[in-house]
Amino acid sequence: WCENNYDISYYVAEFFNSLSSIAMILVGIIGVYLHASFEKRFLLTFGSIAIVGLGSIAFHGTLLFPLQMLDEVPMVYSILALAYCCIENRSYRRYGVWFPVSIALYGLLTTVVLVGAGPHDLMLAFVVFQSSFAFMVLVVMSHIVKIYADIQDVKIRQMWKTTGTIALTSYVFWNIDYRLCDVMQNLPFGLGNPQLHAFWHLGASVGSYLVTLLVCYNRAENLGQSPLMEWKWGLVPYVVVNVKHSKSS
After folding, report:
1. Model-level pTM greater than 0.90?
2. Residues marked as binding?
3. Binding-site sequence positions for Zn(2+)
């Protein structure tokens, strides 16, 4: 990545990229804490964000290939967990047991190829990770579009728009850092590298939390739980439901 290695600390390869990864751990833990009474699928999804953060710190802090796998493999499982939440969001089960099994096998196959490629074929590992992850992102986005189309609450629609803006901006930062590193390292007027990959981490953390939160809200609506969006500490949104009116357990 574009950050100079061991520039800030002798012990940390990419200081800012490692530091910003803490945000993923925080939003993941907060998500689990604030939604502890919700279905396990959402606890798994929030929790997976925290695991991605741990792997990201390990990778950016060392730049070792085995620890890179601790960053990328959890990302695949995290998006798979979110995909399950998006697709199985009705008050009834849409698909049989084959669906979660297929998702698990998808993750397992990706893991085997990534780990099997090893540091000896980094291009194969890169292509497999990018393609498998991007495909699942497109699957999630296609279902988010359907969810958004049915929303009547103006505030919830606005939250979705804000989430999309954060995600898109963060992705732009990722691309600038990745593709225009020479420009970022040689900005005019003596300006330093803005560390856009670190900002990508921050945006991805907030975006991941909000997407999971809003899918959780949609699920509660479909279960007839009359969800409300409230704010913890005046800063963090979370979902509150009335389980007495639930259509399904």
Report:
1. yes
2. 1, 3, 5, 14, 60, 197, 201
3. 60, 197, 201
